[in-house]
Design goal:
The chain is an alpha+beta fold and 106 residues long. Helices cover 44% and strands 27% of the residues. The chain has a four-stranded antiparallel beta sheet. The longest helix has 14 residues. InterPro entries: GYD/TTHA1554.
Length: 106
Amino acid sequence: MPKFLIQATYTPEGTKGLLKEGASGRRAAVEQVVTGLGGQVEAMYFAFGEDDIVLIVDFPDPVSMAAVSLTVKAGGALRTRATPLLTLDEIDEAARRQVAFRAPGT
């Protein structure tokens, strides 16, 4: 199953909701969304700094990740970034593939 790193920052309205609901309430909401699309939450951490929350999730396909991303962003409580994560074996496979490429100016 494709794995994704999600980094999110709460908007002021989202922070108010977090203070009202608590971290465990947000964990339950995230679990419901992810498992509802056939995925799994591997890890979820709150942080401080540029990101307020960091997750590693598995989804059956990238379209499921895109659906969650669009829905969450439309809600306006979070600004998010999703990064696909690749295994070592996937990178080894990519390194073995032949790619016809010519650098600019060569």
